[in-house]
Design a protein that fits this description.
- By secondary structure, this protein is an alpha/beta fold.
- It has 3 domains: 2-199, no CATH class; 225-375, Alpha-Beta Plaits; 399-642, EAL domain (TIM Barrel, Alpha-Beta Barrel).
- The chain has 24 helices and 16 strands.
- It has helices spanning 2-9, 22-51, 55-76, 80-100, 109-118, 124-146, 165-213, 225-241, 256-263, 265-282, 307-321, 350-366, 377-398, 440-446, 448-469, 483-486, 490-502, 515-520, 522-535, 551-556, 566-571, 581-592, 605-614, 630-642; strands spanning 246-253, 288-293, 296-302, 325-327, 330-332, 336-343, 372-374, 402-411, 416-428, 432-434, 476-480, 509-513, 538-544, 561-564, 596-599, 618-619.
- The strands form 3 sheets. Strands 8-9-11-12-13-14-15-16 form an 8-stranded mixed barrel, surrounded by 5 helices.
- Helix 14 (440-446) packs across helix 15.
- The protein is elongated.
- The protein starts with a helix and ends with a helix.
- Bound molecules: ligand C2E and calcium ion (2 copies).
- Residues 407, 422-424, 435-437, 440, 456, 479-482, 512, 542-543, 600-603, 620-622, 627 line the site of ligand C2E.
Length: 643
């Protein structure tokens, strides 16, 4: 209560209302009040001249007030002094009316109207000054009236029904009460105004923040794709004006997902920040580096003299990645693949340029990563061809143009067929047979392999069911599974469904996976493989010896057999005393780990003999049979059974 009163009586300096334009508000209010004062002067003169013989009092008194305020205006406008003077002025007019009407009670109404008008200022000072003016005036004139003292012949009556301190007190209370009410309303208005002003400021601030976040990547603070495109417009305009070229570098970190998956997103994020920092430090001021996706960055290099210098810069970027990256106590190795497209040589269109750089980046990846590749017209043609194939594959699956061929797997010592590998063929209605090397990688890139993969699994399992019905209950069939399929949660349920709906023995079904499958998504892959193993499926490691081939991986993964890559078999020559340490080691390693060892691509008898001598149990290859149709495979089985 006390503090409320205190706040009321504490005359505010300029209130913190609508901060920016409050001074303007006061200047404006001063003008309005001067006009109102002028009008009052007119009214005072008018009223006094028609009703009484004291018109000079209205004209001169009102004129004096107006005059003094106009004189004060240039010196005090906008200040609290001016407002206080106006408060006094307004009130003096009330008093002129009152006295001039010999203290008629109705004339006192003007006091209350004048106080209310003063609230225009949104400042309590003029209101309280006015109230005090009235009270002081009433005190003085009550005295004059009481003692009938004349003052320059002017009417001194303020109360037409008698006078006395009780009446002064009564008037004073009413006036003061109104001043309090108005003061309170002003206070509320000011608080509301401040609040509104603050929220507007907050919105403004938020907008600024939003416009930053909408243009920048939140993790690294680098420009984002949208920002990059708008900056590129400027870059293009400059390149055109000065007839210069610029290069678009499309960077994609190699095996970044591994780091994320094995060490966690925290480490991944910190590494991305470190990479952004590094890239920023490597480019010049008028170059641009932006992050446009998870581990994808774009660098725009301006002003290079010739391709030679450009290549040097790019090599430097590649080298920079070879440093050891220390992130949260992990020592990480990192590399990147870079695709390069050049404006205006490759394209004059920004979107196309980015696409071309992307295409070139994929080539760098395909050629072994950790390198750069320039966009070329041939590459473009190749990509167009691939796009056509990608589209055509969907139709082909509907039109039943895909078939599985089966290549027998042989037990070396007995010569018996123990199973087969399903290998896909595309019997194109126009182009004839297309081999998997021409379309599997495309299917992997487009994601079509997921659909095709499901078809391959279903087809293999159905084939197994036919084998079972024909009485071949100990022959297994394997199918190749791509990395991309392992990234998908459906792989396991696809296999499980197929096995149960066809009612086959899971032990007759095998999958062939490459080391890259295992390496790419270690944790997820391991989990899926364990589930498969639990189902009783046979798991074969394909192309062994070409990748990491580490013993520790062999131990960690629940595999049943090892397929030695064809390149090792190719090395075996007819020469009598040739020895192949690597090949021998792989065979020995398989045996130690209790794995079935199978060699692929055996074309010659001496290769088979060599493998047999080293203890390799199974083989597969043209020497026995090429991949054949299902009917032919059944015929081979029939022949093999009777032999
Ligand atoms: P892969 O899994 O290593 O399959 C072995 C490849 O070697 C097959 O080629 C096979 O026909 C060929 N081959 C077998 N024996 C010999 C031989 O004695 N000499 C020679 N020169 N080649 C031999 P293909 O059928 O063209 O398949 C190539 C690759 O395509 C496969 O390599 C596999 O990675 C992939 N692939 C084939 N079918 C499928 C499939 O159904 N799904 C998936 N994801 N990939 C498949
Ligand atoms: Ca295979
Ligand atoms: Ca293979």
């Amino acid at each position: 209560m006390n503090s409320m009163l205190e706040n009321f009586f504490k005359l505010p300096s300029i209130p913190n209302f609508a901060e920016k334009n409050f001074k303007d508000h006061f200047l404006q209010a001063d003008k309005v009040m001067l006009v109102l004062i002028g009008i009052q002067w007119f009214i005072a003169t008018f009223i006094t001249s028609i009703s009484y013989d004291t018109y000079l009092y209205g004209f001169f008194g009102g004129g004096l007030i107006t005059f003094l305020l106009v004189i004060a205006y240039p010196f005090f406008k906008g200040t609290q002094v001016m407002r206080a003077l106006v408060g006094i002025g307004m009130m003096l007019f009330s008093l002129i009316y009152i006295q001039q009407h010999l203290g008629r009670i109705e004339m006192h109404f003007h006091v209350f109207i004048a106080l209310a008008i003063l609230s225009i200022y949104k400042d309590t000072v003029p209101v309280f000054v006015a109230a005090v003016t009235t009270i002081v005036h009433h005190l003085i004139f009550n005295y004059l009236q009481f003692y009938e003292i004349s003052l320059f012949d002017m009417p001194v009556m303020v109360f037409n029904y008698g006078c006395g301190m009780d009446i002064v007190l009564l008037h004073g209370i009413f006036v003061f009460a109104e001043a309090l009410v108005i003061g309170y309303i002003i206070k509320l208005q000011i608080e509301y105004g401040v609040e509104q002003n603050r929220s507007e400021n907050q919105i403004l601030g938020l907008n600024e923040e939003l416009s930053f976040t909408s243009l920048h990547d939140s993790l690294t603070g680098l420009p984002n794709r949208y920002n990059l495109y708008s900056q590129l417009k400027l870059t293009v305009a400059n390149a055109n004006r000065y007839e210069r070229k610029f290069a678009v570098l499309f960077l994609d970190l190699d095996h970044f997902k591994n780091i994320n998956d094995t060490l966690g997103h925290n480490v991944g994020d910190t590494l991305l920040k470190a990479v952004s920092h590094k890239l920023k430090s490597m480019i010049r001021e008028n170059d641009i580096v932006a992050r446009i996706g998870g581990d994808e960055f774009i660098i725009i290099l301006n002003d290079f003299n010739d391709l030679g210098t450009l290549e040097q810069v790019i090599s430097k970027i590649l080298d920079a990645f070879h440093q050891e990256w220390v992130v949260q106590k992990h020592f990480l190795r990192l590399s990147t693949s870079i695709g390069v497209a050049i404006y205006p040589d490759d394209s004059q269109e920004i979107n196309e340029l980015m696409k071309f750089a992307d295409i070139a980046m994929y080539k760098a990846k395909a050629e072994g990563r950790d390198q750069f590749s320039f966009f070329t017209a041939t590459l473009n043609a190749q990509v167009h061809e691939e796009v056509k194939i990608a589209h055509d594959m969907h139709r082909a699956l509907e039109d039943h143009e895909f078939v599985l061929y089966y290549q027998p797997k042989i037990h070396i010592s007995t010569g018996k067929i123990i199973g087969a590998e399903a290998l896909i063929r595309w019997k194109h209605h126009e182009k004839g047979i297309i081999y998997p090397n021409s379309f599997i990688s495309i299917a992997e890139n487009t994601g079509f392999i997921l659909k095709l993969g499901t078809w391959i699994i279903d087809e293999t399992v159905e084939m197994l069911s036919r084998l079972q019905h024909a009485g071949y209950t100990d022959i297994h069939v394997s199918c190749n599974v791509s990395t991309r399929q392992f990234q998908n949660l459906h792989l396991y349920s696809d296999i499980e469904n197929a096995i149960f709906t066809n009612g086959i023995n899971p032990a007759q079904f095998a999958i062939e996976i490459t080391e890259s499958v295992m390496m790419e998504y270690l944790d997820v892959t391991l989990e899926v493989l364990k589930k498969m193993k639990g189902l009783g499926i046979h798991i074969c490691m394909d192309d062994f010896g070409t990748g990491y081939s580490s013993l520790s991986y062999l131990r960690r993964f629940p595999i049943d057999s090892l397929k030695i890559d064809k390149c090792f078999v190719d090395d075996i020559s007819a020469n009598e005393n040739n020895d192949h340490i690597l090949l021998n080691t792989i065979i020995a390693m398989g045996q130690t780990l209790n794995l079935n060892v199978i060699a692929e691509g055996v074309e010659e008898a001496y290769q088979m003999e060599y493998l047999k001598a080293r203890g390799c149990e199974y083989y597969q290859g043209y020497y026995f049979a090429k991949p054949v149709s299902e009917d032919e495979f059944f015929a081979l089985l029939e022949k093999n059974r009777s032999s």
